[in-house]
Amino acid sequence: MARQTTTYDLLVSCPGDVVEKGYLRAIENSVATFNSTFGKFNNVNLQVVHWSKDSYPESGCRAQELLDAQIVDDSDAAVALLFTRFGTPTDKYGSGTEEEIERMLQSQKQVFMYFVTEPVKMSEVDVAQYQRVQEFKTRYSTLEKGIYREVESPAELQGQLLNHLSLHFLNRIVKSNQPNDIQPKIGIVDGNNEEVFPVENLVSGANAFLQKKNDELVKRVEKLNNSILQNKDSGKKIDNQYTANATLTVASMKIPAYLQSSSVKFDDDDIALLKSFAKKNTIELNDSFFSLGNLTQSKTPVVMGFGNSLNGTTEERARYNALLEACSDIQKLHEFQEFFNQLNQFHSLRLAVTNTGRTFDEDLDITLEVPKGTVVRHSKLPVPGEFIISEFSGNSAVEYLFGLTATASIETYDSGYPSAPTLPSPSLSFPMLQRSQADVYQENLEEYQSNINSLFQYEYFSEPDFDLVRFHIGYLKQHSSMWLPTVLIFSGQLEQIEYSITSKHSPDEVKGSFTIDIGGQQ
């Protein structure tokens, strides 16, 4: 549907040191968020204007005067920042930045004035320039030119400016002071601040993670390949043969089986696993790579059973354990690859609920209507294998996979309901009994699924022609946004999502829709 939008030019006035520190980018991010939230729902658009991209070569008079005519005088408001540099003087003012600020103020236009207080080494600062900034700061307040704010980082500026832009342009938009005009305005926006909502891979950074794991393993295998052990001739034949424990040999006495020892040899599957990994990474294994010297093992009686005891030098035992650990980590790497490949069969959307109105709202119920069979319920997601399940036992792991991290403009999800603590499932433990690998995996799996359930705070409903996803937000401040509980996961082709929002302070049900960028879908 066509609509009329009012565009305001927002001049950015600052010396070069501010740009180098990333503050210009922070301003652009704030404006992008403003346009996709407050501006979108109020038909307002801000256009950032900066001399580096909006001016052009021109002759006829002094440079600052040309810039004033090209971009300054036509701007509707300005964001001015000063850090350690004041700038080059003009024939009228102490710098081009000061002249731009003064021209905006003389035209009775809004100036958002900020001073950067980020820590800096004074040895790297032009003291004269810095002193001029401090003098201007004093003049700005004492001569009653306006109110300024101090910021310590680009992130702080981004958050503050978004709020200040919303408050200022709200006064321009809202003409009526009637109480019924003061109400929340709720909608759904994309975390990327784009008009068409793009899809993403479900697991970001998986390839880098897997490559790092693989590279670490390659270094370890190469180190083992360059430090092999040679069998030493001890006068005993130990290869797959039992030898008596000499200290317990007694004439005419048969040595019990559990006191006999045998040479240690690797399982064929472990050998195949290491060889396959080496071949894949172009490592030519030494012929003696699997040699363990004269390492032997024997069964040792322990409480309620037997245990294996390694007999050999420190180097022999260390190599044996290092090879076993390498096998275990290769198996983990394979399971990570399989798990991430399964997850990346799905796609995800990062969505947030926003309130661009003049007051807070409470008890919001948000319902998303998606095409039948496209949304993926968390109970249908693949689970990690037995070798890596313990890596995902904590809440931080599932939050990394499926959660949404707070930004300067979007806070993390809060349902408003008190969360019940996740308690570990009770289990009996006897020190004398060793749990099986299956028991350990089941325990880790239950903890993983419990963490998933606590993160995905959605209700799912199935209708004949579509599916519904519903969640609750207890409180949403004015001029703020909140992420959904998790990324929205789906499979198949998804082109559009309808949504409806009911809340305590909005008199009507809010309905809307957004288009999905299907370019990245497979």
Walkthrough of the structure:
There is one protein chain. Strands 7-21-20-14-17-16 form a 6-stranded mixed β-sheet, with no helix packed on it. A 5-stranded parallel β-sheet has the order 2-1-3-4-5, sandwiched between helices. The protein has helices at 16-20, 23-42, 51-54, 63-72, 96-106, 127-142, 154-173, 206-225, 268-280, 314-343, 395-402, 437-455; strands spanning 6-13, 44-49, 77-82, 110-116, 148-151, 186-190, 197-198, 200-201, 261-263, 296-302, 305-311, 347-349, 351-355, 361-371, 410-411, 459-462, 466-476, 480-483, 488-490, 496-502, 510-517. Strand 16 and strand 17 form a beta hairpin. It is 34% helix and 22% strand. With 522 residues, it is of the alpha/beta class.
Q: How many beta-strand segments? A: 21
Strand order of the largest sheet: 7-21-20-14-17-16
Gap from first CA to last CA: 29 Å
The helical percent reads: 25-40%
Report on the biggest sheet: 6 strands, mixed
Proportion of beta-strand residues: 15-25%
On the 0 to 100 scale, the average pLDDT is 82
Shape summary: extended
Helices and strands: which structural class?
alpha/beta
- H/I helix tally: 12
Low-pLDDT parts are 175-180, 233-255, 302-306, 423-432
Please compute the radius of gyration using only Cα atoms.
33 Å
